[in-house]
Design brief:
Helix 8 (212-226) crosses helix 9 (232-257). The chain has helices spanning 6-20, 41-60, 76-87, 117-122, 132-137, 190-199, 206-209, 212-226, 232-257, 261-279; strands spanning 68-72, 92-100, 105-110, 141-144, 155-158, 179-181, 202-204. The longest helix is centred in the last third of the chain and has 26 residues, at 232-257. The two termini are 38 Å apart. The protein contains ten helices and seven strands. Helices cover 46% and strands 12% of the residues. The protein is globular and about 55 Å long. It has two domains: 6-40 and 210-279, 3-Layer(aba) Sandwich (Rossmann fold), CATH 3.40.50; 42-207, Rossmann fold (3-Layer(aba) Sandwich), CATH 3.40.50.720.
């Protein structure tokens, strides 16, 4: 899911500042660079997905350079997850799916040897639709939008819509899939989760996996407060550190408590909220 255009976020910040009578750049994030926005914000969610996938591969002893990913979606998250999987991890992206606003349906785009995410980015319109004719002219195979889930892959990245891996579609997933990285919000249903547990598929839950965007929004607020702005490399390095730390906190809880990664993520999150409330004096004697 793509964030609102930066210009709109800038408009909302300006309007709020006018209403309260003072300049408040940190009240909205995702603003344009040069207008209080942060470098690296565009790539942040997709790259955050890749940072967690990288750590999951290390944990599982997988060779990222020999790994194949299949992605649902080609919006902001999937675009940069595809770029990151190829450029950071050295892997291959077998396919991406994309909603076609002209045909009012989704298609899956694939190519022998893997897709070129930069080429596909070059033929995407301002609304996120891949130019089907240009893709086909360049040797891409165009198939049904649901086909992405059936590709032979090591990593599945649902990065578009919720509920896409469910009791029915989970049966179509290749037996070679070892990691499901949830770039979308709520893409996996509880019924599909049970199948993943049974088949020992490693899940990176959504509110960990796709937290790169909101983390970089926090970085934007920090930079607004300082009135000093970091380079793109600094932003992405800090994001990598945060995402890596968060991943290992959840992984450690998962192994310690012998629970599914999604359950461990909830445990870590709730513990941190409780701790913050205790420090504020809102809770006393909490278990």
């Amino acid at each position: 899911m793509s964030a609102p255009p930066p210009q709109m976020m800038g408009w909302m910040m300006d309007e709020y500042s006018r209403l309260v009578g003072q300049y408040t750049p940190g009240v909205f994030t995702g603003k344009p660079v040069g207008g209080g926005g942060s470098l690296g914000r565009t790539e942040a969610t997709g790259f955050g997905v890749i940072y967690t996938v990288r750590e999951a591969m290390k944990h599982l002893g997988m060779d990222s350079k020999k790994s194949v990913a299949a992605l649902q979606g080609f919006g902001n998250v999937s675009q940069y997850a595809a770029v990151g999987f190829v450029e950071m991890l050295g892997g291959t992206v077998a396919c991406v799916s994309c909603y076609d606003r002209h045909d009012k349906k989704a298609y899956t785009y694939s190519k022998k040897g893997g897709i070129d995410p930069h080429f596909l980015l070059s033929i995407v319109d301002e609304y996120g639709t891949i130019d089907k004719k240009k893709a086909m002219d360049s040797g891409y195979e165009v198939s049904d939008g649901d086909k992405w889930i059936e590709f032979e892959a090591d990593v599945l990245m649902p990065a578009a819509l919720e509920g896409q891996i469910n009791a029915d579609t989970v049966k179509k997933i290749s037996k070679g899939v070892r990691i499901v990285a949830e770039g979308a919000n709520g893409p996996t249903t509880p019924e599909a989760d049970e199948v993943f547990k049974k088949n020992n598929v490693f899940n990176i839950p959504d509110f960990l996996c796709n937290a790169g965007g909101v983390t970089t929004s926090y970085f934007e607020q920090v930079q607004n407060d300082m009135n000093f702005y970091w380079s793109k490399d600094e932003v992405l390095q800090r994001l990598d550190q945060k995402m890596t730390s968060a991943f290992h906190a959840v992984l450690e809880r998962s192994e310690k408590e012998k629970v599914y990664m999604r359950d461990a993520a909830y445990m870590v999150a709730i513990d941190r909220v409780v701790k913050a409330m205790e420090l504020r004096g809102w809770l006393t004697g909490a278990a």
